[in-house]
């Protein structure tokens, strides 16, 4: 039997949805990629599962941290052309794989009706343990379960249709960030400044780091080299999962 030809992601999609655990997750891993999508005319929505109220490095009162990080994420999103930013309000640092979380993500998928979903890998990345925050893995697994089977199954969470009028929706592609099995790289060299602008909007998280650009540039340089891109290029990498 002849093996199937390797698949490639769609060249362009009309709508993409990024589902991440915390404010700044999408910007560290994917803001350059998002900038290339919005520049090409893709409408991108961010769905942030928590408000990030367990983060920060200073004496900002805890009750202020969540609203502050929401403001920072909206500013970061605007830097890469995203205006639709939604927060689910689940507890930062205490996410669990629950039916409620799957339903909430399924709801947003049915509202946005994206042809592509970007989220975090549910697999632990032992060589980059910092990427495998428990919240990241829970959101990745919950999002995959929301994509298949929940959002496409009209009989899953029937209240979404009966009470909210949200029809089932099938997502063809899921892009997993921080995966130990990446198979697709995006050259983000030409939009790197937009990524840096997005990251710098998260003052409560990165304001203490004078080396932020150097650190992120070195990271993207290694990713580009691993992907076989020419010297001097910068990249973000993903594991692309096809759902059909």
TrEMBL record:
Gene3D superfamilies xrefs: LmbE-like
GO annotation (BP), single: glycoside metabolic process
GO molecular function: hydrolase activity, acting on carbon-nitrogen (but not peptide) bonds, in linear amides
A Pfam family per the record: PIG-L
Keywords for this protein: Zinc
Record-given protein name: N-acetylglucosaminyl deacetylase, LmbE family
The organism of origin for this protein: Trujillonella endophytica
